[in-house]
Amino acid sequence: MVIERSEIANPVKNIRIVRSDFEQNYEDDIFNPLWIEKLSNFKAVRFMDWGSTNSWGMENSWEWEDTTRTNWIDRSQTDYYTWSNNKGIPYEIMIKLMNDYDLDGWVCVPHKASNEYIRKMAQLFHDNLKPELKLTVEYSNENWNWIFGQTQWLYHHGCEEQNKQWPEGIVPYIQNCLDIWSEVYADDMSRINRVVGVQTGWFDVSDRIIKNMREGSIDAVSPAYYFGLSDENLEAELDILGSEATVQDIASRVRESREYNEKVWIKKIKEGIADPLNLPLMFYEGGQHITPTPFGEEPTYADALLAIQRDTAIYNLYNEWFEFMRTLQSGDNPLTLMNFSFVSNRSAKYGSWGILETLDQDTSIIPAPKYKSIMENIHHGCIESSSVLTNDGNEILLYPNPVVDKLYIESSRNETDIEVIKIYNLSGNIIFESKISNSGSTIDLSHLETSVYIVKILLKNGESFYKKIIKY
After folding, report:
1. What's this model's pTM, rounded to 2 decimal places?
2. 433 φ/ψ angles, rounded to the nearest 5 degrees
3. How many CB atoms lie within 10 A of CB 289?
4. Virtual CA dihedral for 317, 321, 322, 324, nearest 10 degrees?
5. 46-83, pLDDT tens digit by residue?
């Protein structure tokens, strides 16, 4: 869009570019409904990329500068002309998303944040986030990863200036951040998880960071749970195969890499760091990490690397990986596994991180096997029901929820009070409607996409009820 002419005394300003169907409500309904529809399958979201965490405040993720701490007034704010900036989406918008859609959250505090910034950030979430929602707090992201500016900044200020060795020199910054959050949430500690991110494949560095944190000041150890071609020899074999490489060639080498690398690394973090301190694991990122060596160069086996992202092979790899991850969990609390990227295109050079390629991806045409596996494994083994109680004491059950193929509807009476069942998608469109003639009815939902749906139960006496079901 080009502005060709504007009056200097009364210039064109406050421009909004919106889709015509959002014109009347864009100021209140700020989230893309298609995005919300896909996102509603999840319980928690991590705002690392939304908050532009890596090299926060810089134009590129590898940049850093010898600057002092940033104050609260310099954060990203809601009245900025754009939220696509190097300080991320405003925290108020993160809170709105969580509150509006009952999502737990995971925030990353900028590495350059001053104590005032950290305290006011903590206070903002404390005062405005629904108290029943859980918030995980982490200082920056991958502070041990030398490709990111925060690692360079912390090494300079925490190690070189303080004459301390690395990584011990970065620990006071992590400790200080989490301590301030602890002070703000002193009477509400059950509302937050304080985590420290560690490098899954670098045990020594991870161990030294965690062991130098003050006892009792963190709630979880947070590694990643990626799998890929961690053995460069395996990746080199694919390079030799080049354009002759197949999807199965990649899959077999990924399985070999996992047995000797990723599984061993994760178990060592659990058994050598988390278990001795009686701390749980919460995984900050994970999923497939099938990328070439060196990263950022087009590999000779690019076609197969792209193809596996849409192939049943990656679906099987994910299912196998989640089965392994379950062996790490004990107790009743679900294992927290955050995925790095929600929606992004495939790339042989830089990785295919998204579990969806586009928001409007038609999975009947372009498969989304990673998304399918994740949806199934979120609700692995769940056989739950949803129930409604009518005014005259009749209990109506809908089960299972989540549902794979068939949804069963049962009434506590021999004859049902139900007149009509309607099922809506999250866009409000009716996708199923039927009269119910008996107390035990079955609805076949096998043809529906993996998503969240709303069931409307209309009774003969005029009562109506709504229930959310998950289809996978």
Report:
1. 0.81
2. -150, 130
3. 19
4. 150
5. 999 999 999 999 988 788 887 778 999 999 999 988 88
